[in-house]
Amino acid sequence: MAKSKDNLPTEAERYVMPSHFVESDSVEVQDFVSSAVRDLPPDASRRDKAIRLFEAVRDDIRYDPYCFALDEDSYRASRVAGAEAAFCVPKAILLAACLRAVGIPAALGFADVRNHLNTPKLQELMGTDLFIYHGYVQLWLEGEPYKVTPAFNMELCERFGVKPLVFDGYHDALFHEFDEENHRHMEYVKDRGLYFDAPMGEFLTAFKETYPKLEEFNRVRISKGSKGYDSGFSEEGGLLKYLDDFKPGQVFRFRSVPMSEVAIKAFAEEWDPQRLHTDEDYATTIHGSLIASGFQTMLEVFKPVMTEMMVNVANIGGIGFDNLRWLRPVRPNEPLDIEMKVNSVTPSKSKPDRGVLHYTLSAKNPKGEVVFSTDTSVMIQRKQNDTV
């Protein structure tokens, strides 16, 4: 096999350049890389960087087989870099982009795999245990090729007794044939070869034809999001989220429906008939316009969180609020950008089937000013006897 002056096989030389989906030159990918390798010494080898980038993509983006985006643009590495969860294909695209960003040749690979431990939930939606177009990466270090998949995060592997995916820089890191209890797990059925860029049109067409129920499930899930926002939660097919599916630092974003003057006055007349919310002339002299009742603002902030996410969570009940603040008035026709940040996830010591999710909820007006914030906790069921 011919090699370049850098001891690189000539076939691999093209895999160092950015492409439409493998955006190794994007700001988002560069930021992801900088964060991942920040603790490495300045003279760190490419092998060390490859290992660290593999671990970052594997663990910083949680694996979720239900997070199928249905549009091609969502698979660009710049978009994947900011995701909280993803499945194997976008995670492979991001890893390839990160490796190319530090000068390591990386090709996208695709294979059909059979998951012998497929969950009943996913089996029902897919109609099969065969995953087509499983995404992996082939990279080259010192002229030697290695195949790796950053799909399953370590937390998921530990929870379900699946052998972890570990890349040591000298061996492949692909799915294991057996799990920790020696049950059949993953079987590679067909390798579809290496690609310079992701064949997303080909992939999405095959996906929709092969998994029509899963495609429809995702279409419904995505359509539930505010302004196209996909929070990744749905109870379709019984696919509830449990306490175990949350982790500290997670952020979910929503958008409220703007309140009209009529809606503000109508709410105030029934629930909060102060002149600030019912008399436009009076309110204008103080605040420059009519303003919504704080209670109405709170309801509008919580509404998308409840209807788009918490309705699909195995929720037992709320516990209460702390630090409830109305920081600025909310005016007619202002949509609010809402952020839910998970602060802690605490399993119950006395009742192992449940635990407490504590989160901060805040909302900003179109100027980017925080208008509302609160800390709140909710009791949620834990996951029972599920598998990967």
Q: Can you tell me about this structure?
A:
The protein is of the alpha+beta class and 388 residues long. The chain has two domains: 10-223, C8orf32 fold; 245-381, Thiol Ester Dehydrase, Chain A. The chain has helices spanning 27-37, 46-60, 77-80, 88-101, 120-126, 154-160, 200-210, 212-223, 261-271, 275-278, 280-287, 294-308; strands spanning 62-63, 85-86, 106-115, 130-141, 144-148, 186-195, 251-255, 315-326, 337-347, 354-364, 370-381. It has a five-stranded antiparallel beta sheet with strand order 7-9-10-11-8. A four-stranded antiparallel beta sheet has the order 5-4-3-6. Strand 4 and strand 5 (144-148) form a beta hairpin. Helix 1 (27-37) crosses helix 4 (88-101) and helix 5 (120-126) packs across helix 8. The protein is elongated and about 75 Å long. The chain starts with 26 loop residues before the first helix and ends in a 7-residue tail after the last strand. The model is unreliable at 225-239 (pLDDT under 50).
Show the helix and strand layout.
Layout (H helix, E strand, L loop, with lengths): L26 H11 L8 H15 L1 E2 L13 H4 L4 E2 L1 H14 L4 E10 L4 H7 L3 E12 L2 E5 L5 H7 L25 E10 L4 H11 L1 H12 L27 E5 L5 H11 L3 H4 L1 H8 L6 H15 L6 E12 L10 E11 L6 E11 L5 E12 L7
Parallel strand pairs: 1-2
Antiparallel strand pairs: 3-4, 3-6, 4-5, 7-9, 8-11, 9-10, 10-11
Helix pairs in contact: 1-4, 2-4, 5-8
